[in-house]
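Entry for the shared binder. Reason: the reviewer on the internal report wants the predicted structure included alongside the sequence.
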Amino acid sequence: MIQLFYGNQQQFRLRHGDINILGRTDSPQSVKRAQYRLNGDMPIPFYIEPATPSGEGKYAWDCNTPSIFRLRDCPGAFNIEIAVDSPNLQEGLNRITIEIEDSDGEIDTLTAEFHWNPCKIELPININDLNKYESIQEVGQVVNGLFEIDRQRNSIVSCEPVGADILFLIGSPGESQEATYDVEFNLHGNCGNEYAGLSDFFFRHEEQSPELGIKPGYCTSGLSTISPAGEAKLWMAIGDCLTGKDWAWVIHTENSSYFQIQSDTTYRVRHQVIIHDSVNWSRYKIWKKDDEEPNRWLCDMDNAHLKHDLPKIDKASFGLFQFGGNPTSWSNISVRRLELTSELLAELVCKKTFRSIQQKRIQLCIERIMRRAKNLYQKIFRLILPRRATLHHQKNEGNNKDFINKNT
């Protein structure tokens, strides 16, 4: 049986490069063929997560299946990705027919409809009263995992079991932005080393190979995370989780910051991304909602040091993020355009200049070390060579004496 997690009547707006239709089949071990047709056109294959094999993972991040984190530990799950620039996608009503054939030749078919609105969502976005929305898809787009509206708490919550790299996009692709929101964590029980949140300025997914049927490569201009132990980080990436791609890159804050979080406590977060002149700069802070907002940013990172020939990110969409653990709750969400003031631009120029100076210093240090190593090698060689010549001469003299003694 085929089940779509958000029903057979869905709706989407422009939030990133793909429309994501999530669902599952109840026979993941016997799938022979999986494909969909959009508005009656040619069939397109898609990926279904198999039963997870045991043993050490052979894919990126030691994962056991090629979808990496997209559908990890969810046998039978699928995530159909329809490109928003697909020639078969039409504004308004669309029909998708999903077919899954098992190893016995039995074919399961499901037909569903979705409404597509290609218009960009203008900023600012203010989500304060979630009870006015009938569906979570009116608020945003679930890209990975499962999210729902908790009407009693007036919040958006992740659903159990919480998957890896789950993502709920709220905004459309844009340049420099700032998001603020409230967040509550559930740290009861053994949460392990997962990330309880927080949020992302997401770019897109990249494919490992076209025939796989799902794109596992994660791209972000500023992903903010915090662990149950309070370890706070920022991440940037093009093609994280991909292998064998010389254009892929992943960076994160070198030295983790720490902010102790607790269950059932409301925190406030301010998260920014600045996109300017091929540089991404992201930062965030978190504090208890009843306290004053701190002046200091908890995490602050840029990618000005990346090589110029590597791909960069020129736009991003704000969304909510989590990686495993117990459900997290977000509310009072606002997203606004971030004006590039002279002060911000001056800070960015300082960062670029600092990075440039830092790189030159590193290069000079490497050159200095190489010169010293070369000089040291030459000194050692000059010391060893005469000694080796002497030993060689003494050995030859000894051999000559032995030869003379044997022949006299």
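Summary line for the report: The domain at 1-117 is CATH 2.60.40.10 (Immunoglobulin-like).
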